[in-house]
Amino acid sequence: MQNTISLPTPVSPIKHFIKKWGATIFVTLTVIVITIWQYSVDGRVTEAVLASTIRQSTPLVLGALCGLLGERSGVINIGIEGQMLLGAFVGFLVNVWTGNLLVAVFAAIFTGAIMGLLLAYMSVHLKMDQIIGGTVITTLAFGLTGYFYQVGLTTEGKLLPIPLGPLADIPLIGRAVFNNPPITYATFVLVILVHYVLFYTKWGLRTRAVGEHPRAADTLGVDVYKVRYINVIAGGAIAGLAGGFLTLEAVGSFERAMTNGRGFVALAVMLFGKYTPLGAWGAALLFGFANAMQTQLQFADIQVAHQFIGMLPYVLTIVILSGFVGRTRVPAADGVPYEKE
User: Fold this and answer.
1) How far apart are alpha carbons 215 and 236 in whole angstroms?
2) d(CA 282, CA 13)
3) Which of 46, 179, 245, 292 is deepest in the core (most CB within 10 A)?
């Protein structure tokens, strides 16, 4: 009997497109339909929801950028929560002491970078288990901020919105997109910048190579340790900026554990965004929209306990993690310490 070779059945381009992007398109269209319907009912409420969506999504997408810079180079970062929290605390203190918001923002960024350096040292140099290293970062941040925090500290104010001329007057999206404080605008720029660097520059190619096959990258002359150090430190700086957003732009004050799990939600955003900056931005906007909607629902006269309404964003996190983690391709060398021969 002659042996036969069975070839895999080709998948049609339409089925492949639906499988890859179907869920994203469905969620996007659902959000657009809800927004248009709500705008037809009450335009002011819709504008408030969209503005809140942008505010709620900003620290999440910044945290996700921090995580994907590390994981694209092969370093897992579950210490985003701690980096954000300590950045928020130091930025707040510097604002209290100096009254200079710009200096405070840079202090928050620098603090996050130092925490990133600590994580890189533990993960790359000491070759610690990266989950434990991230846990150390978060525990350290909660301990330091809880110990040194003093009740009653006040600042001279917070970063105010800067309207971008006529763009801020565009119906529906003008106030939400074009009337924001500086860190929010910086977030828009960072998403585009990180996407460009990762996928259109030599450094991005080296980063992705180190995250996929560090041995092959090393053979071609790429310094694996250097790439991982720089990416983790840069990610830490972005997480510090996320912390600065909380105390210097969103709230204007500091409270213990004020990050409230945003660093861990940022990891879910990163996974849902499939380790891409633009995908993470879209996922962050979805989480921000869920948060904004649950806030509006709490103001509405709905006969449901507010605790259940407040659970909505976190239920969404669980659903997305359970549905998308297995479908997301993780960088092959993610979490694996590299031993140079």
Assistant:
1) 25
2) 24
3) 245
> How many other CB atoms are found less than 10 A from the CB of residue 20?
12
pLDDT at 99: 87
- What is the H or E stretch that residue 310 is in? helix 306-310
Q: Is residue 19 part of a domain?
A: no
What confidence tens digit (pLDDT) does each residue in 82-133 have?
Answer: 999 999 999 999 999 998 999 999 999 999 999 999 999 999 999 999 999 9
CATH (domain of 208):
1.10.3470
Could you read off the pLDDT of 207-221 as tens digits, one per residue? 999 999 999 999 999
For residue 247, the enclosing domain spans 40-153+169-327
Q: For 75, left (φ over 0), alpha (ψ -120 to 50), or beta? A: beta
- Domain assignment present for residue 65? The answer is yes
Residue 16 within any structural domain of the chain: no
